[in-house]
């Protein structure tokens, strides 16, 4: 069974300092199995949101760029033995070109 869930907003406190999107504290029952993630720049953003791994860097223009209200989906890789496409949420970060801006996060969780 797959369920659409929302994580809510993730905000970059200091521009140029990447923030891990999925914090372990967000999941008191353990990290879920996620097949895809949707990231949307917050409506009030005036700058760009950058999406990538831990090396994402707004100051160096490194990462996938999103503007306010624009969104992009990311999917897993189908390399696990069960054939379900899982997304490595432990390696997903955002950065912002303007401090205090961020993104809304939604994801598909698989339960067996």
Structural features, described:
By secondary structure, the protein is mostly beta strands. The chain contains no helices and 8 strands. A 4-stranded antiparallel β-sheet has the order 1-8-3-6, with no helix packed on it. A 4-stranded antiparallel β-sheet has the order 2-7-4-5, with no helix packed on it.
Give the averaged pLDDT, no decimals: 89
- For the largest beta sheet, what order do the strands appear in spatially? 1-8-3-6
- The SS-based structural class is mainly beta
- The succession of helices and strands, N to C, reads EEEEEEEE
Apparent shape: elongated
Radius of gyration: 14 Å
Query: In percent, how helical is the residue content?
Result: under 10%
The major beta sheet can be summarized as: 4 strands, antiparallel
Terminal CA distance: 6 Å
Percent of residues in β-strands = 35-45%
Number of helices: 0
Number of strands: 8
Stretches where pLDDT is under 50 for at least 5 consecutive residues are none
